[in-house]
Design a protein that fits this description.
Order of helices and strands: HHHHHHHHEEEHHHEHH
Number of strands: 4
Radius of gyration: 49 Å
Largest sheet: 4 strands, antiparallel
Strand content: 5-15%
Structural class: alpha+beta
Length: 319
């Protein structure tokens, strides 16, 4: 019986020891002591209780101390709890310190929490980045379209990285500047002869204002001649004028047809009065029967002559 109790007791002790080493990062604590970074074992246990992975704090802290940075455990832990990338921030601080760029932990943490890659920003401050625009379509005053492609060399401005506009804004402003510069040129040939004028005028506008970058240079990579926009617009205008003229002509023709129909109606109305007048003249004795027959013979003779002549006689109603 005593043997069984001892076995159970040893099993419990062994389980407690295993749980202790699983919950308490003893190996990480030993690594910190070896690196001369003093972090108490109770502090690491507190990290576990606060649901902070000790390795995410201790390893960057060891890296920072070895690089000569004076960072505290509470600073790194607070940044981790805020959702930041501690390792990336420490790497950025080390890179900036080696490059002689002044960057404080609070600023680096703010850049990281803003969703920007602070390490990439530091690298871009040291090694400027070249971004290329797509073909920007611009039309000179002579109506010729030019397709301009520019390469923009930018350097990250760490002071304006939080709240500053990104690359898309820089490219949009560059495109706007190119369109304005080409549009103010009298002829597209002037732009082709002096493409550096675009760079100078666009660069002088201060397009990096309010952005997270500093524009170092703007270089025109390629200029292609596109369509003759002026000629196309004139062609479209001529087509529109032709359609308007045709519409007005059709309107006048319709009015003339309507007028003709109206006059024919008057003629028919007048012809309808002829039989009445003939009847009235016969009743009153104004003309005789022989006069009437003579008039009918004259009408028939006229129609016969017109038929022989190949003409279609007009229909006349006298009775």
């Amino acid at each position: 019986m005593d043997n069984i109790l001892w076995i159970v007791l040893l099993g419990i002790i062994g389980l407690l020891i295993i749980l202790f080493f699983v919950f308490v990062p003893v190996g990480l604590w030993v690594s910190s002591l070896a690196a001369n970074v003093k972090i108490s074992i109770f502090n690491m246990i507190g990290m576990r209780l606060r649901r902070v992975k000790p390795a995410k704090i201790v390893m960057p802290l060891i890296k920072a101390r070895k690089a000569g940075l004076d960072l505290g455990v509470n600073q790194l832990e607070a940044h981790y709890l805020a959702g930041g990338n501690v390792d990336n921030v420490v790497n950025a601080l080390i890179a900036s310190e080696r490059a002689g760029i002044e960057l404080k932990f609070e600023k680096a943490a703010a850049i990281d929490l803003a969703g920007r890659n602070v390490l990439e920003a530091v690298k871009m401050s040291v090694n400027p980045k070249v971004i290329e625009t797509t073909n920007v379509s611009a039309v000179a005053k002579d109506g010729i379209e030019l397709l301009v492609k520019a390469r923009v060399t930018v350097r990250a401005d760490l002071e304006r990285l939080v709240g500053g506009a990104g690359e898309a804004t820089v490219l949009a402003r560059i495109g706007e500047g190119i369109v304005t510069t080409v549009g103010s040129a009298t002829s597209h040939k002037e732009v082709l002869e002096n493409p550096d004028d675009i760079s100078k005028r666009v660069l002088s506008k201060g397009l990096d204002s309010g952005t997270a970058f500093e524009i170092l240079s703007i270089d025109i990579a390629d200029i292609d001649v596109g369509r003759n926009i002026g000629a196309q617009l004139q062609s479209l205008q001529a087509e529109a004028d032709k359609n308007i003229a045709q519409a007005k002509a059709e309107e006048r023709r319709a009015m003339a047809v309507a007028k003709e129909q109206e006059m024919r109606a008057y003629v028919v109305e007048a012809e309808a009065e002829v039989p009445k007048a003939m009847a009235y003249a016969l009743r009153e004795g104004k003309i005789g029967v022989m006069d009437y027959y003579e008039l009918q013979n004259l009408k028939a003779d006229t129609e016969m002559r017109a038929t022989i002549g190949g003409e279609k006689p007009e229909k006349q109603t006298l009775a």
